[in-house]
Design brief:
By secondary structure, the protein is an alpha+beta fold. The chain has 7 domains: 83 residues, no CATH class; 76 residues, Phage tail protein beta-alpha-beta fold (3-Layer(bab) Sandwich); 112 residues, no CATH class; 110 residues, no CATH class; 62 residues, no CATH class; 37 residues, no CATH class; 55 residues, no CATH class. It is built from 8 helices and 34 strands. The strands form 7 sheets. Strands 1, 2, 3, 4, 5, 6, 7, 13, 14, 18, 19, 20 and 21 form a 13-stranded mixed beta sheet that branches. A 6-stranded antiparallel beta sheet has the order 22-23-24-25-26-27, with no helix packed on it. Helix 1 packs antiparallel against helix 3. The chain is extended. The two termini are 51 Å apart.
Length: 636
């Protein structure tokens, strides 16, 4: 039932000695965890593999260890479903195509090894989600569920189930305190409202009053304003969904009639402490281990979950990713704004520079024309005035230049660095593509690499013509590599490796495995297996199936052999040898119903003798020690 896979995935071992503190908890918000303690023992082979980031498999569900402690007496772990490994799997593209729920989920899960079951009533709903992509897989699944107002559950064998609401609705009713094993985990009226107003188009106004206003009083919510609504009934039905007229409630129960309910199932609750009747759901299930079997020990039902540390961890990861995406988008917007401002400032600076230059030229020409009078005094005076004017213009030019250069300098250096780095990266990528362009042919659905070589050698001993070809074909669901060789007599020798999501196939005349080889699962379809050294087998060796009727043999040096079968299943076994030696301290025939055809001549070992005699038509074996009679055995 329990298995542990090492961090590198190379070793998988069973895990035993699980403590009674085992818990498996699953909730309707997708959280799925296991926690337990485990103790070492001689046969607990998985114990040493149990560590942080190892994978624990329970009932075909895989969990990644996230919290781990190790003492001299045992280990304690908390693990979360490996689906949440995909918070670190990025989808580096934007969805395109028909925007149905099924298509969008398939796009997000592509290549993860996970598959989706989508209920038929929502599979073909459409929602053109803006920029669905360029994010991690878990965050995108959450984004889809928020857009479609649906839920998902994690199922065995890496499957997700999407539904409007997981769980059924069978009109089951429960009255709180009907059984004392139910405990209130949360009762919160902070968000309680009982009255709400709605405003639509052209002065449309409605008021919705919940029947629970008679219990809690009229607690008014913020009004809804939406010009899309033009019908009174539609607007009233909508605003009724925008208030919470029952308290946030979570109740844990261990009574059998509730623990046998499925997760997500709707339950009508009569909650007498607040005198309300409300529809709740099975929000969470807790399974424990009893006598090697998983049983549901308790459920939490209500309309509000209590968040655990692992729940908060997952939510925090999602919030961090959302914040990162927001920061990236904001950064892009800021960069675009800065670039636009730089362009605007540069343009204004150029215009100002041109205007100043024009004014300078005009003033210089005017005064130059006036100074051509040849009068030394006038020339000197005008030169002084020109100097003053030039100084003033120069000061204004310097001030304007300084202001605009200051604005540009704030961003130009960082923009220049970013642009230079991007150009360098693009140039490097272009160079890499150019280097390999002659040997790689790339298409939208596959990448194929082929290397061909031809060799012709003529020497004094004859003519040898060889050809070789190797190719690697990479497709979205398959990788193939082939190496072939044709020798001088036309014989073609080929080895082929083919990899798809389900299997890896290797075809060759000889496969060399050097070093320790680990095999998980069965070896099937082999015509023969040759081992040139000792063969060690940990458990049983089976020859043939349970009902095989053909003869099966173990043959020693083509001579001595052990033979079984050939008739009714398990009927006979024969040991064939020129001489059969039984080297044992005791030879016990006590379980044999009959011993037939035994012909033992008189012999003596350490004073013990056995003689074979016939008397009265019956056969006996007589035992003596140093001539003293010990007894006899009748042989049929």
């Amino acid at each position: 039932m329990f298995y542990v896979t090492s961090l590198d995935g190379s070793i998988c071992e069973p895990l035993i000695n699980i403590s009674n503190d085992f818990k498996m908890e699953q909730s309707v918000d997708g959280t799925f965890t296991v926690s337990f303690s485990c103790f070492p023992s001689k046969n607990n082979h998985g114990y040493d593999l149990l560590q942080s980031e190892a994978i624990i498999t329970v009932e075909n569900q895989d969990f990644r260890v996230k919290q781990y402690s190790n003492t001299a007496f045992g280990k304690t772990v908390t693990a979360i479903s490996t689906f949440y490994d995909h918070t670190k799997t990025q989808r580096h593209s934007i969805f395109s195509g028909s925007p149905t729920l099924q298509n969008q989920i398939n796009f997000v899960l592509q290549g993860t090894g996970w598959t989706a079951k989508v209920d038929s009533d929502i599979a073909n709903l459409t929602n053109d989600i803006d920029k669905l992509g360029n994010d991690n897989v878990v965050s995108l699944i959450t984004k889809i569920c928020n857009a479609y107002q649906c839920e998902y559950m994690i199922l065995p064998n890496k499957r997700l189930h999407f539904a409007k609401q997981v769980g059924g609705d069978y009109d089951y009713q429960y009255r709180y305190k009907h059984n004392v094993s139910s405990v209130v985990l949360k009762e919160d009226t902070t968000n309680l409202t009982t009255v709400i107003r709605g405003y639509g188009k052209d002065g449309l106004e409605v008021i919705y009053r919940s029947q629970n206003a008679d219990v809690f009083g009229e607690l008014e919510a913020e009004p809804v304003r939406d010009d899309r609504f033009t019908d009174v009934k539609e607007l009233k039905d909508y605003v009724a969904t925008q208030i919470q007229d029952v308290p946030d409630l979570a109740i844990e129960s261990t009574i059998p009639e509730l623990t046998k309910r499925e997760i997500g199932e709707r339950i009508w609750l009569i909650y007498e402490p607040l005198n309300v009747e409300m529809q709740t759901r099975i929000l969470k299930q807790t399974l424990i281990l009893r006598e090697g079997k998983l049983i549901t020990s308790s459920v939490v039902f209500g309309n509000s979950l209590i968040k655990s540390a692992i729940d908060l961890f997952v939510e925090q990861k999602e919030q961090i990713n959302d914040n990162k995406n927001y920061i990236d988008e904001t950064k892009d917007g800021i960069n675009e704004t800065i670039e636009e401002k730089v362009r605007e400032i540069s343009f204004r600076f150029e215009e100002t520079e041109e205007t100043i230059q024009d004014q300078y030229t005009k003033i210089t020409n005017e005064y130059s024309a006036s100074i051509t009078a040849n009068a030394q005094v006038i020339r000197t005076e005008m030169n002084q005035k020109e100097t003053v004017i030039n100084n003033r213009i120069g000061a204004q030019y310097t001030q304007i230049t300084s202001e605009y250069n200051s604005s540009i300098t704030q961003t130009a250096q960082s923009i220049r660095a970013d642009v230079s780095a991007s150009i360098a990266a693009v140039n490097g990528s272009i160079q890499s593509v150019q280097n390999y362009a002659s040997s790689i042919a790339q298409k939208a659905d596959q990448i194929q690499l082929t290397v061909n070589s031809q060799q012709t050698t003529i020497n004094g001993l004859g003519t040898r013509v060889t050809s070789a070809e190797s190719s690697i074909k990479i497709q979205d669901a398959q990788i193939s590599s082939k190496v072939s060789h044709t020798d001088y007599n036309g014989r073609t020798i080929t080895s082929l490796i083919n990899q798809d999501p389900y299997a890896v196939s290797i075809s060759a005349s000889r496969i060399n495995l050097n070093g320790a080889t680990m095999v998980q699962g069965k070896i099937t379809g082999s015509s023969s297996i040759e081992v040139n050294t000792d063969l060690y087998v940990g458990n049983n060796i089976y020859l043939g199936s349970a009902m095989a009727t053909s003869t099966k043999q173990i043959i020693f040096n083509s001579m001595a052999r052990i033979t079984a079968g050939g008739g009714f299943v398990g009927a006979d076994m024969t040991i064939s040898a020129d001489t059969l030696y039984l080297d044992a301290g005791t030879i016990d025939f006590s379980r044999a119903g009959n011993v037939k055809g035994l012909n033992v001549q008189a012999s003596s070992v350490n004073g013990y003798t056995m003689t074979y005699t016939t008397s009265g038509g019956k056969k006996y074996m007589t035992f003596r020690q140093y001539g003293s009679y010990l007894g006899q055995v009748e042989i049929n």
